[in-house]
Amino acid sequence: METIFKIEKLNLSYGDNHVLKNVSLAIYKNQVTAFIGPSGCGKTTLLRCLNRMNDLNVTVKQDGSLKYLDQEVSSINAMDLRTKVGMVFQTPNPFPMSIFDNVAYGPRCQGVKNKYTLNKIVVESLKKAAIYDEVKERLRDSALSLSGGQQQRLCIARCIAMEPDVILMDEPTSALDPIATLKIEELIGQLKKEYSIVIVTHNMQQATRISDYTAFFMLGEIVEYDKTVELFKNPKNRKTEDYITGRFG
């Protein structure tokens, strides 16, 4: 299986706070990889390493190796990296503009001006995000008029419009109701045919439903990393078993 990210002995600190400790794992192409673990254990910090979002924090110190397609992430232009490694955040964050303009925003920033090309990108991205049929008659309406679940799928469409290889998702359903959550989970199952997906989730049932691989974090370390079925059915580490059976966390 092709490796898209290879992480070896990665350490990260915010000032004196050592957040990631000697983290090593591989993330595979066209698979859904879930990061689980208690709050504050380093899941989101590692996710943000994958597209250099942590660079925005001036107190960050990082060492070890983090490669994207065999190239050190630190050597890749941050904007180029974030084009290829898109991100969907915990709370839907559509721009205060029309549904169409939200999806067209990234391509326009990259110099796409042709109306036909932009329209094609917007329609295809909305279709891939499983929201086109719900919004096709109202593309000029404000994105802020959509429901929370629709806004999150719009944000996924906005990410897809940039033609990424990887989509990072930081608890993308934590602000959504169960029906909207189910739509996002079904969408993730479709998207992995074209994209590699890394998702942070506090919901272990969600990890079992949608992910192929799961990494369990505790106190900045990876306690266990395996195929999701194996990790949940036959955990090799007692700490993993205690967490997934609800003995702590």
Q: What is the strand content?
A: 25-35%
Rg calculated over all Cα atoms: 18 Å
The chain-level structural class is alpha/beta
Distance between the termini: 33 Å
Shape: globular
Provide the CATH top-level class: Alpha Beta
Say how many strands there are.
10
How many H/I helices? 10
CATH superfamily: P-loop containing nucleotide triphosphate hydrolases
Order of helices and strands: EEEHEEHEHHHHEHEHEEHH
Number of domains: 1
- Main β-sheet: number of strands, strand sense, barrel status? 6 strands, mixed
Low-confidence stretches: none
CATH topology: Rossmann fold
- Assigned CATH architecture: 3-Layer(aba) Sandwich
The overall pLDDT, averaged over residues, is 96
Order of strands, main sheet, comes to: 6-7-8-3-9-10
Give the proportion of residues in helices: 25-40%
